[in-house]
Amino acid sequence: MKPEEIRKLDAYFKRTFQNPQLEVKARPRKDDSCELYVGDEFLGIIFKDEDDGELSYNFSMAILDVDLA
Q1: For every one of its 69 residues, what pLDDT tens digit does the chain have, with 9 covering 90 and above?
Q2: Are 36 and 59 in contact (CB under 8 A)?
């Protein structure tokens, strides 16, 4: 993703979840997605989706059962 997109997504996540520790980072060797972290902990991947001239972003987060205990 372009740096401008990453900056906008970073601001969106910080504002939406009211958490300045959230950080969107570029993925090495991938240009269709980026990663979301809180501090050093990986939370998930944000995918860019362009379909029929419309642009959206999809956030995917896996939650392990051991994390729920």
Answers
A1: 999 999 999 999 999 999 999 999 999 899 999 999 999 999 999 999 999 999 999 999 999 999 898
A2: yes
Q: In degrees to the nearest 10, what's the CA dihedral of 30, 34, 38, 40?
A: 10
Provide the residue type at 27 as one letter: R
Q: Which of 15, 17, 22, 49 is closest to 36 using CA atoms?
A: 22
Single pTM value for the model: 0.89
Distance, CA of 24 to CA of 5 (rounded, Å): 10
Instruction: State the total domains in the chain.
Output: 1
Q: Which domain does 52 fall in, by range?
A: 3-68
